[in-house]
Amino acid sequence: MNTDINHYITKSNQVEWQPLVEKNIHYKGIFVKSLRYDEAAGRSTTILLKFEPGAHYPYHNHPGGEEIFVLSGDAVLEHTTLLAGDYLYTPPGFRHSVTSNTGCVLFFVIPEEVEILPGSGEL
């Protein structure tokens, strides 16, 4: 284990937003910053997501659950609007889509990769 604390710090203001592309699908209007990359899993498990107004992420499953904290704006999940300061934990197997009316920035902890569900209207 590296004992230098600087090894574990991500200065998110110094990281550029990247378009969200998963399995060669570009989710228009959604951008990502990786905060924690899990080498063993080969993926980021802690991220920031930025939605432009009207952006939509399709209906999907969270096999390992997820945690969301809204930093700014609004996020709509299952017809419920989350606003800045709201926190959501979804248990493993929870399914939903995400839309933002005004745009938002979300802090996500996603232990396992999401599964886009068939017929979800991928963008």
UniProtKB/TrEMBL annotation:
Pfam families named among the record's database cross-references: Cupin_7 (PF12973)
InterPro entries on file: ChrR-like_cupin_dom (IPR025979), RmlC-like_jellyroll (IPR014710), RmlC_Cupin_sf (IPR011051)
Domain ChrR-like cupin: 9-108
TM region(s), chain numbering: none
Name assigned to this protein: ChrR Cupin-like domain-containing protein
Species per Swiss-Prot/TrEMBL record: Chitinophaga ginsengisegetis
